[in-house]
Amino acid sequence: MAYDDTTYRRDTGDRGDSNPAAYRTGLAAADYRARRRDLDPDGIEVDGEEPTPTEPLRRDEADDGGRDRLGIHIGWEILLLLAVAAVAFLLYRLDPASVRRPALDGLLISGASIGLLALGAGLTLRAGVPNLALGPIALAGALHFAENGDDGLVKAAVPALIIAAVGGLAVALFVIVLHVPGWIATLGAGMGVVVYDQLRTAPVAVQGGYDPSNQAFYLFGGFALLAVLGGALGTVTPIRRMVGRLRPAGDPALRRGAGAALPVIAALVLSSVFAVAAGMLIAAQSAAPIAPGTGLEWTGIAFGTALLAGTSAYGRRGGIFGTLLAVAGITLFLEYADRRDLDIALFAVAACTIGAGLIVSRLVETYGRPLPVPAVGADWNAAASAGTWSPDMPETWATSATPPENASGRWDEGPWGSTR
Description:
Elements: H1 20-39, H2 59-63, H3 71-94, H4 103-127, H5 134-148, H6 153-178, H7 182-197, H8 216-234, H9 237-243, H10 261-285, H11 296-308, H12 322-339, H13 346-368, H14 378-386, E1 413-414, E2 417-418
Antiparallel strand pairs: 1-2
Helix pairs in contact: 3-12, 3-13, 4-8, 4-10, 4-11, 4-12, 5-6, 5-7, 5-10, 5-11, 6-7, 6-10, 11-13
């Protein structure tokens, strides 16, 4: 039998491949692709060219492979609760009647209005399509209700809600078909709504006699239920990934697939409907005429409150009770400032709220991401950092050891012994 027969060919660890380096590269590439699929924060394959095995994983891929840590959200929500209690105490000391009925009904209606705007902002942040038209839409809803409130609640509200839903659907289709950033598309839509808002040359007195005070507890309770339920669902990783499929991973201009359409449509339609409902509540409880304007201050209040609640500016993370507590705090502060005649512009409140919310967003992203997953070759890196690795260390990728070469090189002195 010939020496080079496959029966007696010694195992060199290359599994029939004459190039061990290529074998190792193939293993690394396969493992890299698997890790990219497992650790993509949105659960989506990244389109484009296949990355090389030596390309490092992005940090968001390496850190978003597991469930978010909720400790930062719990701690921040405790601080929010203390802040709400402090503002409520200051308001009570200033005027005890302000936290009792009938004044309490007005507070609850204001809280429900701001809460609906904050829900719309938080939902669109989570979906990756922040709706910057929320404020102008809310003002349009208030002006529409002020002009048509004498026709009854249903006749005044239903057409406005339908128009808002159709408008949200149109913007969503624009975003999906062209695959453009949601914030710029909604900003353009908001500018169009501002034109409608500013067609009035004078404030509009509220028509009709609808008074939401009798339903104040139900309205605020409905908002609170939606806020807590939405926050709880947002902590579930599969739901979070499904809602945020449009958020970019890799090249932001690459299309995210048909699966991103439904969350975008739902987010923009619901947020627009919430904004109209908030505007109608503002008009219904207002004793003064509704003045035309831009409504952008309410956009700032909405997104500032959502960020202050603990929703990440990137949309990936959020708490459970944060929206409810942040809305309560903003509502109480606005009431306190009004009763103290502090004369603080809503734009100033919105700017400060957004600034504070961005700080909270940075804390959430820093301390809320999952523990990092060790990268391939972590044991080699650990050995290198410990000073025990050297280029002469044996490679361990092969599963079987190579027998030592025969020093004499004679064909008849193999491992089976000499034939002499």
